[in-house]
Specification:
about 100 residues; Arc Repressor Mutant, subunit A; three-stranded antiparallel beta sheet; about 60% helix
Length: about 100
Amino acid sequence: MAVYQISRDRREQARVVSQAAKALSDPIRVEILDLLRQAGGEVCQCELAPLFDVTQPTLSHHLRKLAEAGLIEVERRGRWAYYSLREDSMEALHSWLS
């Protein structure tokens, strides 16, 4: 019988992919990620809010889940938050799916 082992790198990759999968389990989060991908840079939360039929606190919740999963970055400037994709996380997810 063969003995299999899982390397630390594979365990870390599994953790990262698992977090991303959980974050992407909601269609609104997938749409947010797609919008940020299309934008190719930072997008203000004030620009995202009118695009979704949810309250501002609900949108903030979805953005926070994406940030906690490491899929997006947030930069606060005054009263606004600006969001962008984390290319390294997207590359890791893409690599695993390929």
